[in-house]
Design the sequence.
């Protein structure tokens, strides 16, 4: 069964600090892994997308890493801002077939001033 | 960039009535769209996969007669919640695959409250 596990479930940090979110998956065969940011009451917005051959991808202060061998990914947020407070969702898609992605439960990040 | 819109963004209805939610891909054609439901502080749960020109594929536990999906064109899918009950109150989100860009885009969501 395809699964995506995220940790921690929630995280509270002070503004300006860095943090790292984790994502482990069992989806196979693997096509791509995406990180989304979802503000409360809004739809998810894509931060990064990585395929099998990509190890690192950055989007501003967000840097995602992927280890396809261990099936792990991380999302690093640098110099956090209050606006980073949101839920961060890891989504892994299989290759071929119906292209139905598997969602993680998300990490709820709260940035305090 | 590619945008997926939803209408309405929020709706309040009385128990027993039906509500239709629209999902549109604005600058690309989407042969496949997905409908999700999200309860407070929980992850998105896939309800069904909407295929243009054919019947939707529903996930286990989702009643197809209650959640009617129509994917009438390459840019529009609709979800109708029939005979809504308070337990159907939730955040409904659609997404569409832009195969040309290899991207999956989400709509902004529709907040349904059934009183």
Sequence:
């Amino acid at each position: 069964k395809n699964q995506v596990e995220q940790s921690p479930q929630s995280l509270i940090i002070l503004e300006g600090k860095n943090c790292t979110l984790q994502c482990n998956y069992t989806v196979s065969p693997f096509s791509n892994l995406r990180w989304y940011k979802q503000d409360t009451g809004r739809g998810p917005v894509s931060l990064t997308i990585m395929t099998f051959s990509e190890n690192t991808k950055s989007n501003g202060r967000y840097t995602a890493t992927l280890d396809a061998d261990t099936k792990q990914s991380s999302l690093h947020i640098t110099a956090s801002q209050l606006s980073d407070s949101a839920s961060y969702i890891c989504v892994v898609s299989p290759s071929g077939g119906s292209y139905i992605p598997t969602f993680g439960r998300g990490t709820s990040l709260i940035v305090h001033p | 960039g590619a945008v997926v819109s939803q209408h309405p963004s929020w709706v309040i209805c009385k128990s027993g009535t039906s509500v239709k939610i629209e999902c549109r891909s604005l600058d690309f054609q989407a042969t496949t769209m997905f409908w999700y439901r999200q309860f407070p502080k929980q992850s998105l749960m896939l309800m069904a996969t909407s295929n243009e020109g054919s019947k939707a594929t529903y996930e286990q536990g989702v009643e197809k007669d209650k959640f009617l999906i129509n994917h009438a064109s390459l840019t529009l899918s609709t979800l109708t919640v029939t005979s809504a009950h308070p337990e159907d109150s939730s955040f409904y989100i659609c997404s569409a695959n832009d195969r040309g860009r290899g991207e999956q885009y989400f709509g902004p969501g529709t907040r349904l409250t059934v009183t």
